[in-house]
Amino acid sequence: MNVRAIITGSTGMVGKAALIECLDSEAVEAVLVINRRPIDIQHPKLKEVLLSDFTKIDSIKEQLRGYNACFHCMGVSAVGMSEAQYTHITYDMTKALADTLYEINPDLVFEYVSGVGTDSSEKGSLMWGRVKGRTENMLLAKGFKDAYALRPGGIIPEKGVKSSTGWYNFFYAIMRPFFPLMKKMDSIITSSQLGKAMINSALYPNQNKVLEVRDLKIQANK
């Protein structure tokens, strides 16, 4: 199967990593990015749709047809947010996207990037962990052909990938001399590995539906 992927959040580090690997991969024949602001990338197999409010994803339904994978990389920090605000962005917008894509093509592979510490029980003390856990559970039970919750830990940027958070980039610049050592750590994955893991998860089904860092590294090498 050739992958025809929808990517959200491609202006952020994880989404940009997925986009770069998709554009480089012979296994990916088409990419549609849905963003709140435009990206400055031109490529023969790339299309872009701008959407400021993801709860209105139904308004671009016709442009979502013909794709067999979705890499949902959009996300925000919970810092300074109430649980209601964070739930709206993390859960409600994701559900709107999933509902629309399921209506169009239930045979799609949906991959949601959450993170280490996500709480599948939805009962933990960390608000963001509960909300992401609820989001994971909703997606895994939706009924898609296949679905995965990806939980990367620390991410080392490669191929020009940058974080949309300024101080993260400052931190990466300081830590760059230690990248070779960090790559050997079980809790660290590179942006290239993460992007390849997304593509390979769409191509090669995995029995595990919640993919931690070690699982993602294995997927990247398939």
Structure, explained:
This protein is α/β, with parallel strands linked by helices and 222 residues long. The chain has a single domain (3-220), classed as 3-Layer(aba) Sandwich (Rossmann fold), CATH 3.40.50. It is 37% helix and 18% strand. It contains seven helices and nine strands. It has helices at 13-24, 83-104, 127-140, 166-175, 179-182, 191-203, 213-220; strands at residues 3-8, 28-35, 46-50, 69-72, 109-113, 146-150, 154-156, 188-190, 210-211. The strands form two sheets. It has a seven-stranded parallel β-sheet, sandwiched between helices. β4 (69-72), α2 and β5 form a beta-alpha-beta unit. α1 packs across α6, α2 packs parallel to α3 and α6 (191-203) crosses α7. The longest helix has 22 residues, at 83-104. The chain starts with a strand and ends with a helix.
Structural class: alpha/beta
Strand order of the largest sheet: 3-2-1-4-5-6-9
Strand content: 15-25%
Give me the CATH superfamily. Answer: NAD(P)-binding Rossmann-like Domain
Number of helices: 7
CATH architecture: 3-Layer(aba) Sandwich
Strands, total number: 9
| Cα radius of gyration in angstroms | 16 Å
Q: Number of folding domains?
A: 1
CATH topology: Rossmann fold
CATH class value: Alpha Beta
Shape: globular
Helix proportion range = 25-40%
